[in-house]
Design a protein that fits this description.
By secondary structure, this protein is an all-alpha fold. The protein has a single domain, classed as Four Helix Bundle (Hemerythrin (Met), subunit A) (Up-down Bundle). Helix content is 77%, strand content 3%. A two-stranded parallel ribbon has the order 1-2. 35% of the residues are buried.
Length: 150
């Protein structure tokens, strides 16, 4: 669209500039509150993984269901790790951010084990134990960030 003078409106340039700036800047600063939300998400993912692993350990879950859920939830854990790793943490939460990124990677790896071995009861039992430990670790990180028990 052109104006009477034959120029395109500056709105288009402004919008393109804003989009480019958002892409270049990335996720931005990571506050304690934002990190706490991400860590709580990791705790929830670990709890869900523990439930799925429990079903595998008891031979009470279909392999197809286990694979689909493990792939979906593992992808969410990987995405959370990426979001946290891409964000620039405030100085006071850098250690917790780094710990949360590592935790997210471990949770994603545990989901990968379930996806690979959906019918192996022994694998399910080990993953269930490690998911419980991951949940406890997420709760501990959240507690340090908020000063409250989750």
């Amino acid at each position: 669209m052109r104006t009477r003078s034959g120029r395109r409106p500056r709105v288009t340039a402004s919008v393109c500039g804003a989009v480019l700036l958002a892409v270049v800047v990335g996720c931005g600063d990571l506050s304690s509150q934002e990190l706490s939300r991400g860590v709580e998400s990791l705790g929830a993912l670990a709890a869900q993984g523990g439930l799925i692993a429990n079903g595998v350990a008891r031979d009470a879950t279909k392999s197809t269901y286990t694979r689909v859920m493990a792939k979906t939830l593992g992808g969410e854990a990987e995405h959370e790790a990426e979001k946290l790793a891409d964000a620039a943490p405030d100085a006071e939460v850098k250690a917790e951010r780094d710990e949360a990124v590592q935790l997210a990677g471990r949770i994603a790896s545990l989901f990968s084990r379930l996806q690979t071995f959906p019918g192996e009861e022994a694998v399910g039992a080990r993953v269930q134990k490690r998911m419980r430990e991951a949940k406890e670790e997420a709760d501990a990180i959240a507690e340090r960030l908020t000063g409250e028990e989750p």
